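lol forgot to send this yesterday, sorry. struct tokens for the thing we talked abt
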């Protein structure tokens, strides 16, 4: 994947900016990536990211900076390299070249500090199928180091934000796609991160659910930076 053109900006509110980074497979373009120097309040600063899988050059020199209040959308066809870029940005995969900094913390040198500021919804929103939603969220809150009153407060906040009240005692394997995706978003929000990376958050959802997730992302983005992807080009 390379990114083409300057990111487009549209103003949805005075505090929020939405940008679309159109991403295309390497063979379709020789145009340069967008390359800007990071301003002081940058939440995500990725430079020169490159990743090869054998003969496939999946990510070829991505530079990306995202500031608070910005929503950046990766738009590209299947196989363009959107998920791979997200895996590099979240530390799920090691890049062959390049660096990632989250809230000023270098992902390689200070992974815990960087990941503390990161919430990640992987593609397909994986969860532990036999856990109930409550067990799953409690487990992840525990992993994130939350306990006592802080844990209860964050659980209540995300359950309300994502509207999970009605399914808290249901096992994840019995949830509809829409609710499964919401649980994935809830776990990404639990520790109140500054950066949200959402891989295809609306994929497979019906139009109402898509609208809800988009509204949710919009409401969350006021004080966070959000990067999301979609292969739905229209
Ligand atoms: N672990 C891997 N091993 C080998 N090739 C891989 C691996 N992960 C991704 N690829 C390849 O890298 C390229 C980019 O894949 P990626 O999943 O990042 O694309 P994508 O834009 O997210 O696509 P989609 O919209 O289908 O999710 C594809 O050609 C894919 O086959």
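and heres what i got for the seq, position by position
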């Amino acid at each position: 994947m390379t990114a083409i053109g300057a990111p487009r900006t549209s103003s949805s509110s005075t505090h929020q900016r939405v940008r679309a980074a159109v991403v295309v497979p390497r063979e379709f373009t020789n145009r340069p990536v967008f390359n800007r120097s990071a301003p002081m309040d940058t939440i995500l600063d990725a430079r020169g990211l490159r990743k090869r899988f054998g003969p496939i050059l999946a990510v070829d020199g991505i530079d990306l900076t995202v500031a608070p209040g910005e929503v950046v959308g990766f738009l590209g066809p299947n196989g363009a390299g959107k998920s791979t870029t997200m895996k590099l940005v979240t530390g799920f995969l090691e890049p062959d070249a390049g660096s990632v900094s989250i809230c000023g913390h270098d992902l390689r040198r200070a992974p815990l500090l960087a990941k503390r500021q990161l919430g990640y919804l992987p593609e397909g929103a994986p969860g532990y199928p036999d856990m109930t939603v409550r067990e799953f969220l409690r487990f992840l809150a525990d992993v994130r180091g939350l306990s006592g009153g802080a844990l209860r407060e964050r659980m209540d906040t995300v359950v309300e934000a994502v509207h999970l009240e009605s399914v808290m005692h249901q096992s994840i394997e019995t949830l509809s796609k829409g609710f499964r995706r919401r649980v994935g978003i809830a776990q990404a929000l639990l520790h109140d991160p500054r950066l949200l990376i959402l891989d295809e958050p609306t994929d497979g959802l019906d139009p109402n659910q898509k609208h809800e997730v988009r509204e949710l992302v919009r409401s969350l983005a006021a004080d966070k930076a959000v990067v999301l992807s979609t292969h739905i080009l229209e």
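The beta strands are 2-13, 16-24, 44-53, 56-66, 70-75, 97-102, 105-106, 118-121, 195-198, 225-230. anyway ping me if u want another try
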